[in-house]
Amino acid sequence: MSFKRLTPAVDKLVETLNEKAGAFKKLESLFEQQLDALRNGETDALGPLATEAQDCTDTIDDLRQTYQRQARLLIRMVELEEEDPSLETLIEVLEKRAPDAEASTRLAQARATVLERAESAQRTNDTLQFALEYAAGLNHELLAAVQEAAVDTDRRTYTADGTAESGGGEHSLVNTIG
């Protein structure tokens, strides 16, 4: 197949990969906004940001499916014999078929950009996950402390010299004698 017929398919694949990289960048930004909201105690902002992050994740999944369809088409067009070749293999085949064309270079750059943005988003996600787990742990400790403070004490009276004496029985707060 002539390389001129491959160019539109490669262009579409590069375009999809660039969209996917943009979606990863947006996802990372949403993770950072959630971290900022957590740092500033803006818990009301976490819900909408999490929903938007989920929508962005759905977009990334849709783009992954689109990318896979486009890659399969390109694989059929170059008549690649492998069952499920990687994008790296596809790039190598394109380089061999048209070494002077820039399609394989653009595809490799788009792939590298997607991987870089995905790794960056994953690092930010890991930071957010740690922060949320830490905040949840603090919340749990605070609730335990509040519940423990509400528990009845052992009724000991501490004297000025630092010793503890039994507080005795229960005393009424109202003086009934007089």
List keywords for this structure.
single chain, 178 residues, mainly alpha, two-stranded antiparallel ribbon, 4 helices, 2 strands, 3% strand
Outline the secondary-structure elements:
Elements: H1 3-39, H2 43-77, H3 87-97, H4 103-149, E1 156-158, E2 164-166
Antiparallel strand pairs: 1-2
Report the end-to-end length measured between terminal Cα atoms: 110 Å
Q: What does the average pLDDT come to? A: 83
Number of strands: 2
Describe the main β-sheet briefly: 2 strands, antiparallel
The succession of helices and strands, N to C, reads HHHHEE
Shape by Cα distribution: rod-shaped
Structural class: mainly alpha
Oligomer: single chain
Widest β-sheet, arrangement of strands: 1-2
Annotation field: number of helices: 4
Strand content: under 5%
Summarize the structure in words.
With 178 residues, this protein is mainly alpha-helical. Helices cover 73% and strands 3% of the residues. The chain has a two-stranded antiparallel ribbon with strand order 1-2. A hairpin with a 5-residue loop joins strand 1 and strand 2. Helix 1 packs antiparallel against helix 2, helix 1 runs parallel beside helix 4 and helix 3 runs antiparallel to helix 4. The longest helix is centred in the last third of the chain and has 47 residues. It is rod-shaped and about 105 Å long. It starts with a helix and ends in a 12-residue tail after the last strand. The mean pLDDT is 83.
